Amino acid sequence: MKSYEDMALHTDLYQLTMMQTYVLKGLQDQKVVFDMFFRSLPFGHGYAVFAGLEQIIDYLTQLSFSEEDIAYLKSLGFKKEFTDLLSDFRFTGDVYSMKEGEIIFPNEPVLTVEGRIVEALLIETALLNIFNHQTLIATKASRIKQITGEKKTVDFGARRGHGPGASLYGARAAAIGGMEGTSLVKAGKMFHIPVVGTMSHAFVQSFEKEQQAFMAYAEENEGNVVLLVDTFNTLKSGVPNAIRTAEELKKRGKRVDAIRLDSGDMAYLSKEARKMLDGSGFPDIKIAASGDLDEYIISELESQGAAIDMYAVGTKLITAFDQPSLGGVYKLVEVEDEGKRRPRIKLSDNIEKIITPGRKKPYRILNSRTGRVEGDYIALADEKVPQQGRNLLLFDPIYTWKQKTVEDYEAVELQEKVIEKGKKITVHPDIQEIRSYREKALSRFWEEHKRKSNPQVYYVDLSVDLWRLKNKMIEAARSYY
Amino acid sequence: MKSYEDMALHTDLYQLTMMQTYVLKGLQDQKVVFDMFFRSLPFGHGYAVFAGLEQIIDYLTQLSFSEEDIAYLKSLGFKKEFTDLLSDFRFTGDVYSMKEGEIIFPNEPVLTVEGRIVEALLIETALLNIFNHQTLIATKASRIKQITGEKKTVDFGARRGHGPGASLYGARAAAIGGMEGTSLVKAGKMFHIPVVGTMSHAFVQSFEKEQQAFMAYAEENEGNVVLLVDTFNTLKSGVPNAIRTAEELKKRGKRVDAIRLDSGDMAYLSKEARKMLDGSGFPDIKIAASGDLDEYIISELESQGAAIDMYAVGTKLITAFDQPSLGGVYKLVEVEDEGKRRPRIKLSDNIEKIITPGRKKPYRILNSRTGRVEGDYIALADEKVPQQGRNLLLFDPIYTWKQKTVEDYEAVELQEKVIEKGKKITVHPDIQEIRSYREKALSRFWEEHKRKSNPQVYYVDLSVDLWRLKNKMIEAARSYY
């Protein structure tokens, strides 16, 4: 993971000035707990898909300052007592995380860091940077895939991502979220994602005639003959030339696999093209569509009966165009003080922005009768939550009168330890495994949580003990000022 | 530029399948010309700021396939005749480009590639990926900087960019666009951008009392004492504690430099905080603001007389939140055929999407009397456009009755050769130079082009010869089908 080396300075300056302060005050070994979570779902979607854990783990386990880094920090005025400690600096804490591909919700700890305050601070920027990006794109991909259903759907966004890194790791996240291929060859190589794509307008233009281009391509790329038909005029030129090419190839025992539409009214064009292909004896030539597609346009196309067999999504997926930021945060929830663990809280005038204090564990509550989800349940880490039980009370932490009791439930712990004393203790699953995990996790949700518009809000509730602690701390902090 | 090595496979699969086709057909050495440009301005802004050239040049001059890359392509089914050529593959063409920091407009060639068809194709994805990202962020930064004017404005976006690469190169682009600092330390180190930042909420929370945190920080970070005042309550706790800290430091001959507001109604809070600071004898303590700011919010704050001295912008800048994609394209405009250069065109039902054919040169037309811009002027490369002259006719290429004559003009050629036969022939300017170039270039524009809403549309016109060629080719292509 080359790109996740040399990342020690991939941090905000204030992390380093704060670290220096702790070091100079002799507080650097204070034990703390930070939770990483996000506050609201993007795109008006009903859930998010966690992605980026592999890169987070690689970053944490490779973290070290080079001599060049240290020299640069000295040039900024950092003091020797501090910079001297950096040559041997490693991340030595423990990390607990949900699995990549997990279905996640606002205000639950996706990942929890336990460590010394200096190391826990330093890593905030990179952790959020990776989490915010990959989770955003995976969520967008999952949202799109829900609309395209069984139809093959692939990522064509490379040129429109926010630079090479965003396109590369965006392709990874898109695959986790459900995309079945990518046009970006390096992503295929690094993450074992199937690569897809055939020809561009420039290729067609570079020949005197459109059909020359089609034939040249078909002759040299058997098995992947997808002809782009909109360079001049889709129905008057592109599709007829594709049919002529298919006829020519048929004589040689070969075939055209598909045509690709990239502009114009795709509902109309796809239906007309389908008729022309069928009418010429080529019902097996598929139709692919690309060109500024997103879940809304695809949904419209599907409802108009477009004859499209495969969708390629680019800009709108790889930039998460309609909401290009997740807004994940990383908050201090506990500080060890003279050997005692003390929960911490941050207030806000906005009640939904007040963090939930303390070292916690998130659980997914499944109804044992239906096998489906009832809600997520966050308890203090030292509370006993039996794996199976009866009559669990779930109540909204703000609107507490909103409550329900689950008669027979199974409580699945969502976090597992992934780093122990700075060492990776899990094996990175491959992309296919992560994608399957996402599919399986999602299958336990109700359709109401998965619909594109106005999904049912999923419950993320607190245990009674945790709720009491939080309210007690809010009161104490408020009365203080 | 570590990140721009190992980029040969950072390309869409179709570039490679097309390359293979040309190679197998013996067409790989066909000479072609591609133009890189964009079609419409983001954010409703009046201009864009070109950024990313340094990375584009690094990419092109380092481009090579590793053995691993070649093995991967073989595993995908690419043929030996093609993959054998890749071990020695280098980019050997010429590149002409506008300068980084240039003020650019839709439909003019920002960068032009002349080379063999196989190399010109391969590079499309990476060129656009870099150009689209950095130009987008530089443009957003320039737009924000126009609103903040003389007030120091910095990039705080690292955690919200689309992954580490997007944040890093986004910080670079933001500096080109006018940001005077970044919180991202690695960007400071790599690009020599001033780094900024002081403390987070977690730092304040980690102490028993807010003022303890302030004092600890102030004692160890002289010269950069910016206290974050909203962890508990800005006016009841944060500002009073900042004042107490300032009083304590004053006794020791030291000082608090600034406070930072990060939430709440910043117009009200900044004015109240200003009064409290002034009233306590600290008129020199500055007020910085951060927290989901963009040009609209800052504009509102300024019009409400907010007492803010410095702005830090994050998410909205680094993700170009309101329009996170530029949509730059790279189009074939000329093909050499039996030694003759033949212009190429791509039609579209949307007249504004029809490309302008041929090898061209863009000029900026300055009015010799005012020293200000009149419009950009695109001519065929072999046309003579005198550097100075009289009575130049500018006319809209679509609405041709929209025209004007510039009596005394200066024509400044906007592109220069940056790569010759694959070798870099210019020196990368540093970020400060690029930023100054942008400022100087922008100073030649009228306020009407620079305003935030409904800016005056800037003319990008064609020479008469180029306009005639384009129309002739449109007619010829249309009559063909």
From TrEMBL, chains A, B:
<dbReference type="InterPro" id="IPR040727">
    <property type="entry name" value="NAPRTase_N"/>
</dbReference>
<keyword id="KW-0436">Ligase</keyword>
<dbReference type="Pfam" id="PF04095">
    <property type="entry name" value="NAPRTase"/>
</dbReference>
<feature type="domain" description="Nicotinate phosphoribosyltransferase N-terminal">
    <location>
        <begin position="9"/>
        <end position="132"/>
    </location>
</feature>
<dbReference type="GO" id="GO:0004516">
    <property type="term" value="F:nicotinate phosphoribosyltransferase activity"/>
</dbReference>
<keyword id="KW-0597">Phosphoprotein</keyword>
<dbReference type="InterPro" id="IPR013785">
    <property type="entry name" value="Aldolase_TIM"/>
</dbReference>
<dbReference type="GO" id="GO:0034355">
    <property type="term" value="P:NAD+ biosynthetic process via the salvage pathway"/>
</dbReference>
<comment type="similarity">
    <text>Belongs to the NAPRTase family.</text>
</comment>
<dbReference type="InterPro" id="IPR006405">
    <property type="entry name" value="Nic_PRibTrfase_pncB"/>
</dbReference>
<keyword id="KW-0328">Glycosyltransferase</keyword>
<feature type="domain" description="Nicotinate/nicotinamide phosphoribosyltransferase">
    <location>
        <begin position="152"/>
        <end position="275"/>
    </location>
</feature>
<dbReference type="Pfam" id="PF17767">
    <property type="entry name" value="NAPRTase_N"/>
</dbReference>
<keyword id="KW-0808">Transferase</keyword>
<dbReference type="InterPro" id="IPR041525">
    <property type="entry name" value="N/Namide_PRibTrfase"/>
</dbReference>
<dbReference type="Pfam" id="PF17956">
    <property type="entry name" value="NAPRTase_C"/>
</dbReference>
<dbReference type="GO" id="GO:0047280">
    <property type="term" value="F:nicotinamide phosphoribosyltransferase activity"/>
</dbReference>
<dbReference type="InterPro" id="IPR007229">
    <property type="entry name" value="Nic_PRibTrfase-Fam"/>
</dbReference>
<keyword id="KW-0662">Pyridine nucleotide biosynthesis</keyword>
<dbReference type="InterPro" id="IPR041619">
    <property type="entry name" value="NAPRTase_C"/>
</dbReference>
<dbReference type="GO" id="GO:0005829">
    <property type="term" value="C:cytosol"/>
</dbReference>
<feature type="domain" description="Nicotinate phosphoribosyltransferase C-terminal">
    <location>
        <begin position="359"/>
        <end position="470"/>
    </location>
</feature>
<dbReference type="InterPro" id="IPR036068">
    <property type="entry name" value="Nicotinate_pribotase-like_C"/>
</dbReference>
<comment type="function">
    <text>Catalyzes the first step in the biosynthesis of NAD from nicotinic acid, the ATP-dependent synthesis of beta-nicotinate D-ribonucleotide from nicotinate and 5-phospho-D-ribose 1-phosphate.</text>
</comment>
<comment type="pathway">
    <text>Cofactor biosynthesis; NAD(+) biosynthesis; nicotinate D-ribonucleotide from nicotinate: step 1/1.</text>
</comment>
<protein>
    <recommendedName>
        <fullName>Nicotinate phosphoribosyltransferase</fullName>
        <ecNumber>6.3.4.21</ecNumber>
    </recommendedName>
</protein>
